[in-house]
Structure of Serine protease K12H4.7:
Amino acid sequence: MKLIFCLIWSCLWCGISAHFRSFTSLVGIGEPNRRPSLIGTSLRAATLNFIIEDFIEQKLDHFNPTDNRTWNQRYQAHSEHHTAGGPIFLLLGGEEKISKAWLRDGSMMEYAEKFNAMCFQLEHRYYGKSYPTDNLNTTNLKYLSIKQALADVAAFIKTKSKKYQNSRWVLFGGSYPGSLAAWARITYPHLVYAAVSSSSVIKTRIDNIDYFKVAEKALTDYNPKCVSNIRQATLMISDLLDTENGTRYVQSKFRACYRINPDVKRDVRQLFQQLSLPIARTIQYNKDNRYYSNMEAADLSITSLCDIMLDRSLGNSFDRYVAYHRKIRHVLKRQCSSYSYQSSLKSNSEIYWHQGSPQSGDRQWFYQLCTEIGNFVTSNEDDHLFGNTIPIDFFTDLCTDVFGEHFDLNKLKKAVHKTTMLYHGLKNTTSRVIYLHGSFDPWNGLGLTEPKSDDSISIFIDGVSHCADLYTSSLKDPPQLSEARETVIFYLNKWLTEN
Ligand SMILES: *[C@@H]1O[C@H](CO)[C@@H](O)[C@H](O)[C@H]1NC(C)=O
Ligand SMILES: *[C@@H]1O[C@H](CO)[C@@H](O)[C@H](O)[C@H]1NC(C)=O
Ligand SMILES: *[C@@H]1O[C@H](CO)[C@@H](O)[C@H](O)[C@H]1NC(C)=O
Ligand SMILES: *[C@@H]1O[C@H](CO)[C@@H](O)[C@H](O)[C@H]1NC(C)=O
């Protein structure tokens, strides 16, 4: 969530396989690991055939009574744990397609067994197979908004409640969907009884400088030299880009697919932004219990990153940084990496559902960032992790180039202000929301770590990263993570047994 914000480069990889999108970009939560209790015991569990998939008719515009256009939203259902009178657990989809694996594995299903819950997962409009419009041109994208997405959730609950009368609905979500779960609780309190909001990003900003600050702290906890060597490598790259020779050297060392032109500011920013992503990604998804078809991908962690950055035998800081990127390319089975602004612009400008960027959700997510969310991950001061190499206008220029001249910094400022206004009520008034955050998660700075309402709680889990609590539990989990899940169960039990 979840929610990392970078689409820009993820589209360059999407040809490979669906699993890799969340691996190479900072968005999405992928799929949870298999639950050990289900492995080998049940062929049905393996096939996922017991999970029903269907579509529900939704209004294109919930807020315009004269517009009667509709579309079909995908959802999935799992009823095996449900007994009459049990609650309903709804996992919200976000900026990627939904996967049935989340209705088999992951912590929500572990809770569902305990509470005899009926389980649903609802795909977010404009992602996966939930197509509200013919194509994704800028005119059509205007129905992609947080407000419309929350109204979809409300309509879904209303429709399904006809069958499950008097059942209490508990919403779950990680990253952006975690924010939606909490926002749905304040927007539709009569429909949403409680929410479990994992690693949600509630405070919206345009320029998210906190991200790399938290990331830096996570690396420093491991070894302070790890950070200074990454900083040093960035400085060395900047210096090399001053000469033609040096540029060629950088190009060949980082296996650029296209020539890097150091005179084009956007290309240079694109290069630094893309080089920062594998580092960010490594920290954001450090040792989560995610399913990887490629075991080497599961191995990428703060430890493996810093071990390389501290390894003298590999050469100077630049050489070690090159070595980590080589390792990433190896895991991704890539020959080269594109650091070109033009190719990023091109892929984000695709408007048909089955093309790369719309198919992976990158264009849609970028639209949401440019119009309502912001939170662009920047590094724009000399003492930031990547120095002054990733300024905010790198992103806002891309917004304008992809969606048109109205999509500029000013528009975004107004929109983000509105998003903040709409939802700042969460802080004081909303009851029955559980917020969970990990100390290594670079997004935690924008989360609600101190809710003010008496009946909402926030759990800060030391030593884990983004959405850690949402994945399948494992015997290898640190005790504080297991405790956090027990706390969730405690509160759900308390709230669900109240009259
Ligand atoms: C939508 O509304 C228009 C006029 O308001 C009407 O002609 C049309 O039949 C309606 N379509 C549906 C599917 O109800
Ligand atoms: C967007 O696509 C719709 C068809 O879905 C079309 O009617 C509209 O004119 C297009 N808008 C632009 C700006 O291309
Ligand atoms: C450029 O590279 C060549 C070959 O590696 C080297 O001989 C030359 O000294 C370099 N020139 C500069 C200005 O670094
Ligand atoms: C929330 O409560 C804090 C003090 O606890 C107060 O400063 C703030 O103004 C309140 N915000 C709203 C939106 O009520």
